[in-house]
Amino acid sequence: MVAVTAGVAAQLLTRRTSNDHDTLGTLLYSLRRSLASEAIDEQLYDDLDAVLDEYARPAPHEITAIAERFRRTTTKIVEVVPYLVRPYPVEAMRHLIYLSAEHPHPDDALGHLRRFALTILAILDLMGESAS
Fold first, then answer.
1. Which of 9, 76, 83, 128 is most deeply packed, by most CB within 10 A?
2. What is the phi/psi pair of residue 58, to 5°?
3. pTM of the complete model beyond 0.90
């Protein structure tokens, strides 16, 4: 975190701002990308790979840990998707929330985790398409 003195803050607040569409569009794009980076980190990609890789066979304790991280990621995705994806992907988000709420029997946990990972991946795809 960076501390800003009162003098610096006052100076920054008195600067002229731009209201032209190009500048505001660039700022909006940057803010949206910043939101997305809060929801998506390297750990998420590692977890997706650990679940979806051709030879993936996560241990039961790994399945539990990954599912919990996917649930935390779901919360972040639900917060940022309305700002990043147009039109809002109602069915995909409904499916993601549904999977996030499930806590399957250990015998069914790996299949559930793979469905969960594929749904997250599909939404990440939508977020990437909207950014371009």
1. 76
2. -65, 145
3. no
